[in-house]
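Before a colleague's protein record goes any further, I have to sign it off. What it holds is a sequence and that sequence's fold in token form. My question to you is simply how this chain folds and whether the tokens agree. Thanks in advance; the entry in question is below:
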Amino acid sequence: MTDRPKPLVGRRILVGRAAHQASALSLGLKDLGAEVIEIPFIEIRPPRSYQRLDSALKRIAQYDWLILTSVNGVERVASRLGRLKIKPTNLSSLKVVAIGPSTRDAAEKVGLKVAIVPKQYVAEAVVESLRGKVQGKRVLLARARVARDVIPRELHNLGAKVDVVEAYQTIVPISSQKSIRSLMGDTKRRPNLVAFTSSSTVRNFVQLLGGRGRLSHRELEGIQFASIGPITSATLRELGIPVHIEACEFTIPGLIQAILAN
């Protein structure tokens, strides 16, 4: 019996997800033979205060829709529901939108019943999936402190009353700065591909390298850049980083497939 082919042998790939979330991407790439370097570009922290999230969850019966845009958001909401002794199974009348399959799986794991997963896993598709369903309805959006305003703005235009609450915040992990600068400055150790899973990881990557704006061509020489989807790709281009690979399905498995196909 022969071993399964390892098509990514010889590829050195830098993965920059938050430390506790890197495993799915890293393991998938390693399984295909890649040498994976993990340096977090992003760190997930609790919000500055849980007051607004807790207040909304105490009034959760007043909402028609709950929108969850990440696994992190699911985890924080579930944690606070537990702290407030509100069982997710008691929210049967609440309709839940999950931005993608990973978020759906996380939500269902904690007892939330997901009504909608858009066909594309981006904010614009969330809005489109709710067109005609939210006029006059109350919507709770639990998300990161800093995020695109597409969902609240467009749902408001569709006639919804939207409450946006901070469930967590993302910061630049300063502890990664020395590691990433050392890696990128060493021609023998530099990755030949860097994988990005969000616009935040792109901006933090640039910041960790000391860039206040666009990176120079010298800093990017000999490296390919892979993006999980069009929003992340737009941020890469905005900061002067070329997009060599873009996932067709905006998920971790989709990103792995795109890297494999390149």
Residues 2 and 32 are 15 Å apart (CA to CA). Residues 12-42+173-261 form a domain with the Rossmann fold fold (CATH 3.40.50.10090). The chain is about 35% helix and 20% strand.
